[in-house]
Amino acid sequence: MLHVTAIQQVLAVISGLIVGFSLGLIGGGGSILAVPLLLYLVGIHDPHLVIGSTALAVAVNAYLNLIPHWRSGNVQWAAAIAFAVPGAIGAFVGSSIGKIVNGKDLLFLFAILMLVVALLMLRPKKSGGNLHFHWHRKMFWRVIPTGFLVGAVSGFFGIGGGFLIVPGLIISTGMPMIYAIGTSLFSVGTFGVTTAINYALSGLVLWLVVGEYIIGGVVGGILGTRLANQLSKHKRTLNFVFSGVVIFVGIYMLTLNA
């Protein structure tokens, strides 16, 4: 069993706070931030333990951060379930394929994908983000295949997929950004649990670190959700924040894998 020092435990809580803040603010960034934080800040150098532990921690934090967004009226449950169920199936399929692909190649491809998504999200929206969103049954035919595809990509890269789920929800339903962020957390948690179960069955989860990540994530999630609600009152501000974070992380990942 890997020994975790007291300093590493404190750093794990701080890392969890950062991850939770990202999830609460933009509905994504959990796994993208959690993995390097656990590797380089906390100092857990076994990649398999890191992926397994962060997948579970991010999943739990996503579910916990779902609560304040739900209370704020940002979660569209019909869309959340319609997206998450096929997405979980896709995550299982994608993760099975991803295991046989070189990890460095996966990170490089994902960084490129992040930059493309960020640029798409920066495009002016024709409808201006109407908060009076209503779910229609006709949306099923777009949400289900989109959920499966996003879940497959998320599982393939071994991440929660918030960066993909948010635009996936917007494209398939037309819901405003703040709703997509709140709604996406259900899928982030579901996809993360799917990945974590696979790793836990192989003994690749540090339960103590997971608990500390969750503690920090609860505090960070509350702060992130409050800021997201404030930014949603200003036109396109949240879109720019979302895209800015995605571009920054994408470029960072490209430099690491150049």
How many structural domains? 1
Q: Name the poorly predicted regions.
A: none
Morphology: globular
- The count of strands amounts to 0
Report the span from N to C terminus: 34 Å
* Number of helical segments with 4 or more residues: 10
Percent helix: over 70%
Strand content: under 5%
Helix and strand sequence: HHHHHHHHHH
Structural class: mainly alpha
Q: What value does the average pLDDT take?
A: 82
Largest sheet: none
Radius of gyration: 17 Å
Q: Key terms for this structure?
A:
258 residues, mainly alpha
Description:
With 258 residues, the protein is mostly helical. The chain has one domain (6-256). It contains 10 helices and no strands. It has helices at 6-26, 30-42, 47-71, 77-98, 103-121, 140-157, 162-173, 177-200, 207-231, 237-256. It is globular and about 50 Å long. The two termini are 34 Å apart. The model has no long low-confidence stretch (mean pLDDT 82).
Write the layout of secondary structure elements.
Layout: H1 6-26, H2 30-42, H3 47-71, H4 77-98, H5 103-121, H6 140-157, H7 162-173, H8 177-200, H9 207-231, H10 237-256
Helix pairs in contact: 1-2, 1-3, 1-8, 1-9, 2-3, 3-8, 3-9, 4-6, 4-8, 5-10, 6-7, 7-8
